[in-house]
Amino acid sequence: MKAITVSPANTVQDIELAQPVAQGRDLLVKIEAVALNPVDLLVRDGHMPGGGDDRVLGWDAAGTVVAVGPDVTLFKVGDPVYYAGSVVRAGAYAEYQLVDERIAGRKPASLDFQNAAALPLTAITAWELLFDRLGISRTGAHQGKRVLIIGGAGGVGSIAIQLAKLAGLSVIATASRPASIQWVRDLGADHTIDHSGDMAAQLLALGFQDVDYVLSLNDTDLHFDAIAQVIAPQGKVASIVPSKAPLAMEKLFAKSVTFVWEMMFTRSLFGTADMIEQHKLLNEVATLIDAGQLKSTLGENFGKISAANVIRAHEALNSGRTIGKLVLSGF
Questions:
Q1: Any bridge partners for residue 315, and if so which?
Q2: What is the pLDDT of residues 176-205, one digit of tens each?
Q3: Fewest CB within 10 angstroms: 31, 163, 261, 272, which?
Q4: DSSP-assigned letter for residue 108
Q5: CATH 3.90.180.10 region(s) of the chain?
Q6: What percentage of the chain reaches a pLDDT higher than 90?
Q7: What are the Cα distances from residue 241, in Å, to 146, 184, 224, 261?
Q8: Domain 2-119+266-329 class in CATH
Q9: Rounded to the nearest 5°, which phi and psi values hold at 164?
């Protein structure tokens, strides 16, 4: 089968590999479309767990189940699925991939494979951030609470805005360009501010002294002082971006602020007892999509799945100026 790998020398290349065989609770999926994520860049730079001389990239996919392991109970051959996979297994930039059924969901029936592939990793991350890490009620118990989403136009931010609105929160999303500002407004953000400026002053200009929650979705180090300034007493902060240096956590002490990390691969990486929660939430996201309450966040299709197009898309991701998700489809 065709596949895209990264070598220890950080070379992205097209290669041929043997087609894998489903065992245990594995699904063998024929890949139709994949999305690109910053995790690809972390793997290329050696900052993510896992081994092997050449690694198949890609942790966002949509495709069709063509074979199942003997212990599979949730899917059957022919089912369309979408998922983010596991960072310690071969990725999705291949014609076929194995994925544990407990971290896969049914593809939204109303979406094509390209739009479906843009969703899993970011939807899981945003869902876990809001509802698992921050403990925000999905049924409106925190109606009217304010959340600041730093990096609102990115993949995770684009889903987080929509989920936060469904939960009844008042959403302030950061964006720095006319196109990204329009993007977050179209997704439902109530207010926008520019994360490259003084966020506290901009919030005051909107009439807000502070916010109840902060989602830090880009450069935690750069924005930490501003986060400490704008978070409300007894507020909660969640970040998906590891810090490059120790954070001055004492700045959160007087306010009794909760700070939590989110890494959506934790469940699959450690084989936690609740891995199946990702299957459940992906199915719930699919239901919301098909009901018209959420929409895909595909930003741009970069063409077929190939090393050349992966490299182009990685360069775009590195620019920090992408809007929504970048997708590749077909071989």
A1: none
A2: 899 999 999 999 999 999 999 999 999 999
A3: 272
A4: P
A5: 2-119+266-329
A6: 86
A7: 21, 20, 11, 8
A8: alpha beta
A9: -65, -40
- What is the Cα–Cα distance from 29 to 66, expressed in whole angstroms? 6
Structurally, what CATH architecture does the domain formed by 123-261 represent?
3-Layer(aba) Sandwich (3.40)
Nearest CA to 173 out of 133, 198, 142, 146 is that of 146
Task: Specify the pLDDT at position 49.
Answer: 59
pLDDT tens profile 64-74: 999 999 999 99
**pLDDT tens-digit map of 218-274:** 899 999 999 999 999 999 999 999 999 999 999 999 999 999 999 999 999 999 999
Which element (helix H / strand E) includes 205? Answer: helix 199-206
Residues 6+ apart with CB under 8 A from 254: none
In the chain, which residues fall in CATH 3.40.50.720?
123-261
Which pairs from 63-66 meet CB under 8 Å and 24+ separation?
Answer: 63/29, 63/30, 63/31, 63/32, 63/33, 63/97, 63/113, 64/29, 64/30, 64/32, 65/27, 65/28, 65/29, 65/30, 66/28, 66/29, 66/30, 66/96
When the pLDDT of each residue in the chain is averaged and rounded to a whole number, the result is 94
Q: Cβ of 214: how many Cβ atoms within 10 Å? A: 29
Q: Going by C-beta distance under 8 Å and a sequence separation of 6 or more, which residues neighbour residue 47?
A: none
